[in-house]
Amino acid sequence: MARHIVARTSEIPPGGNKVVDIAGRDIVVFHVNGEFFALLNRCPHEGAPLEKAACVARLTSPEPGVYQRSRVGEMLRCPWHGWEFDMRNGQSWFDPKRFNIRSYPVAVERGDELQKGPYVAETFPVHVEDSYVIVEV
Asked: pTM for the whole thing?
């Protein structure tokens, strides 16, 4: 894997992003909560540019009517269809094969025990050295 200097840390403000071309790939680098994340700039669903995605929080609910926000800004919401991806690993929790109107058996399970969706945005390792952001591709 080759290392590519993509920006000075000051070029990507907190909450912002920068798209870079590395070896013919559009890669978007996000700066969130003091960390940098790099993903292929393409939603695996229909190809929307993830640079336009909303950076939202992870929302969980321990019981009806009670909501908890965590990891603020680390979830990407696709600008075209609203599918969400975890910025750390690109994983989507949405599974369109289960999206239909029909009744199913119901069980209560912890959120971290649920099966992940089939779609994963491609991610790349990111390092900060001195004041430069470096992506490994």
From this structure: 0.75
